Amino acid sequence: MLQKIPWKSGPAEPATAGIVSATRTEVHKFRDMPAIYLRGLRLRSHWPETPGAVGVQLATEPLKRTTWTVSLWSTDKDLHQFVRSQRHIDTIGPYRDRMSVAGTTWDTDRFDLTDAWAEAQRRLAPGQQPHPSRRWGRRGLRSSRQAGAKLPWPSRLMALQYRFFKLVRHRQTPSAARRPADTGDFASLRGARQCLIVSFKQSGEPIATPVNLGLADGKAYFRSEPHVAKMTRLRNNPSVHICACNIRGKPTGPMLLGTARILPESDAIRAHDILRSNWDPPTKMMELFLDRINVPAVYIEVAPQVAAS
């Protein structure tokens, strides 16, 4: 049974929506439990001064050498900044090799602490495969491939597909990433089945990726596996460039400015229907097969950046 420490609030006002983060830490040896637990309490004491932190609760299972956390954040960016903060790194770093940490996050429209704990225990129960996008390392959140974890077989199958499309990618795709982009609506995307999404590394380097496209209400939609590098770039910087392209990534329209938003699970069905309405028969067969084998997916909405009048 979990022994929980009371909920500790941060500087933000109580919120019903945000990003829930949950972690399960298994300490390798009993002798390290007191020091790691005290470090967790010390980190928790700084919660009121942590930007974007709404609240946190810790729990322990001493006989299992396990600690848990559930926290609520205003935005995904706030969570990432905390994980990469020097205070977090200094707290966890000395004991990183003496424990195993699994983590998961999800969007919520209405936060309930009891439900959050139930969901955390369901996702992170010992023996279950952690969510592929959530592994905590010395430098914070990183992909399971970087952390040395083995991806589930549907994602490994997708990795082969990515390699194939990279081999046949059009020679103009890399240079298209560096094209200047203009403000305006997405009228030029109508009739296209694919588009180039240009996302940006922290260094500012642009990376162009062809994706299947859906359009509705003047916005573009696509989906992706949550652990791929493109999603990391979008979480760090939601500003994107977008243009119509063919299946090999050859640009067929002007480059436009957009703002990407990772949709909550409550909007996934609508986004899926928008995408499905634009699939041609071969794409539909492939995408429905991927749905059948449960390839993990998140949905992204891209809104145009329109010049101010």
What would you say this structure looks like, in words?
With 309 residues, this protein is of the alpha+beta class. Helix content is 28%, strand content 29%. It contains 9 helices and 15 strands. It has a 7-stranded antiparallel β-sheet with strand order 10-9-13-14-15-12-11, sandwiched between helices. The longest helix has 15 residues, at 153-167. The model is unreliable at 129-149 (pLDDT under 50).
List keywords for this structure.
single chain; 309 residues; alpha+beta; six-stranded antiparallel beta sheet; 9 helices; elongated
List the helices and strands and how they pair.
Blueprint: E1 3-4, E2 8-9, E3 18-27, H1 33-45, E4 53-61, E5 66-73, H2 76-83, H3 86-92, E6 99-108, H4 113-124, E7 135-137, E8 140-142, H5 153-167, H6 173-176, E9 194-200, E10 206-212, E11 214-216, E12 219-224, H7 229-236, E13 239-245, E14 256-262, H8 268-276, H9 281-292, E15 298-304
Antiparallel strand pairs: 1-4, 2-4, 3-5, 3-6, 4-5, 7-8, 9-10, 9-13, 11-12, 12-15, 13-14, 14-15
Structural class: alpha+beta
Lateral strand order in the biggest sheet: 10-9-13-14-15-12-11
Oligomer: single chain
Q: Describe the main β-sheet briefly.
A: 7 strands, antiparallel
Helix content: 25-40%
Gross geometry: elongated
